[in-house]
Specification:
This protein has about 425 residues and is an alpha/beta fold. Helix content is about 30%, strand content about 10%. It comes from Streptomyces pactum.
Length: about 425
């Protein structure tokens, strides 16, 4: 039997948001973690803010690191494992980069040798501080750091895919040096899968690090085009999970749905629980899913200014730690996982061919040919996965993944429906 899918939350402190690191107080953190543990989840993901921890390239604040260790220990006391994001980086529309990389000290985050040395030292230090904690899962390099590497960021740190390869290898090695054998990974937002000029590529996401991480947000054009209750919106997370598998070399590489949430107003508050339930159910139908980690634990306080409106209500719990309907949905899924109520999904035997060329990955984005074909298959009752067009005739690769049929986007025609609404198959829709 494969291990049960893990359920967790991205921890957003109820008091002070991530600025709580400036005047860290363990008592409200403990209260937050009590409210998280009450949901029955088994892990959290936490976010040190990089400039607060490493304000100078050669100064990593001992007290800040000690506070992180205290948080991890408090989580362990409540039965929660912890993944730690290092290079924050970018959170909820705000950038947090140390002054030694900006303005008068402007240096490229991904290519400058001194910056890279400082980053590696920082990640190694955090990992080493936590290496002896049994509930420490491992490091994520940072939160969606690919947003710094290309547009639409207003001041990107440009790099080539080869330079990003080298950067990822160096950063992951630093984490491994600090905490050998833990689950170290990197995680990007969906431009990695959808944006043609992104130097962070699908191949890197699916091959480097211990697991593949995907972040699913339907405000990327999916809900705008199709609506909150559409097949694409309710299956978007599952689509990213299956899309990532096209680039993986290991046929059963684990995939972590590391971020997913119900963003208003595209998903109004009164419909958030239904969206959450559908998203989780569809993700659980994906083989090799490591876990689901919801964004986020607690709402952003209205006392804090200038956040995008959607950020204030994304929490599973309110600022006074009361669970919302979305929390109850996640808690039920976590409870069922512990009870073994989620059987391992069957292999997905139909694969949609996707372009191996990363310069053509926009075909996979909302509005693209691959995106449209995938969801036509889903609407037709299929359970598709994906395969690179360069592997579509590789019988050993297909067999290892349980794939028995490969189709191309132009073969997946809209399926007509009969008077009762059921699909009417016609010849020629697949070959």
């Amino acid at each position: 039997m494969p291990p049960a899918v893990r359920f967790g939350v991205n921890y957003t402190p109820s008091q002070g948001w991530f600025h709580h690191w400036l005047d860290f107080d363990l008592d409200p953190v403990r209260a937050d973690l009590d409210s998280v543990a009450a949901l029955g989840v088994d892990h959290i993901r936490v976010f040190p803010l990089w400039p607060y921890f490493q304000p100078n390239r050669t100064l990593i604040r001992d007290r800040a690191v000690a506070h992180l260790v205290e948080l991890v220990d408090a989580a362990g006391e409540r039965g929660l494992d912890v993944n730690v994001d290092g290079l924050q980086g970018h959170l909820s529309s705000f950038d947090y980069l140390p002054s030694w990389t900006r303005t008068w000290h402007r240096r490229n985050l991904f290519t400058d040798p001194e910056v890279i040395d400082g980053q590696a030292t920082y990640l190694r230090t955090l990992a080493a501080a936590l290496a002896g904690r049994p509930n420490f899962l491992g490091m994520t390099l940072g939160n969606e750091v690919n947003q710094f590497s290309a547009g639409p960021h207003p001041d990107p740190d440009r790099a080539t895919a080869d330079q990003i390869d080298a950067w990822l290898e160096r950063m992951l090695a630093a984490c491994e040096e600090g905490a050998p054998g833990r689950m170290h990974l990197h995680a990007e937002y969906d431009a990695t899968w959808y944006q043609d000029d992104q130097p962070f590529t699908p191949g890197q996401a699916a091959r480097q690090g211990a697991v593949t991480a995907v972040h699913s947000w339907v405000f990327n054009g999916t809900a705008q085009r199709h609506g909150r209750t559409s097949v694409p919106s309710e299956h978007h997370a599952a689509y990213l999970i299956e899309l990532s598998k096209a680039w993986a070399d290991a046929p059963h590489r684990p995939v972590w749905l590391q971020e997913v949430g119900a963003p208003a107003p595209l998903v109004p508050a009164e419909h958030a629980a239904a969206f959450t339930e559908a998203t989780i159910a569809n993700a659980l139908d994906c083989p090799d899913l490591w876990g689901v980690t919801w964004w986020c634990s607690h709402d952003v306080s209205r006392a804090l200014a200038d956040f995008p409106e959607l950020e204030y209500g994304l929490g599973l719990l309110t600022n006074d730690r009361r669970p919302k309907d979305t929390a109850r949905v996640l808690a039920r899924a976590a409870r069922e996982a512990r009870a073994g109520a989620h059987p391992a999904p069957a292999p997905r035997t139909t694969a949609l061919a996707v372009p191996a060329d990363p310069a053509a990955r926009s075909a996979c984005a909302p509005g693209g040919a691959v995106f449209g074909a995938f969801f036509r298959l889903v609407a037709d009752g299929a359970r598709p996965t994906t395969v690179l067009d360069t592997r579509a005739a590789d019988t050993a690769h297909l067999a290892a993944r349980g794939i028995t049929e490969v189709v191309t986007p132009d073969q997946v025609l809209p399926t007509p429906h009969g008077p009762d609404g059921s699909p009417v198959r016609q010849g020629g829709t697949r070959s």
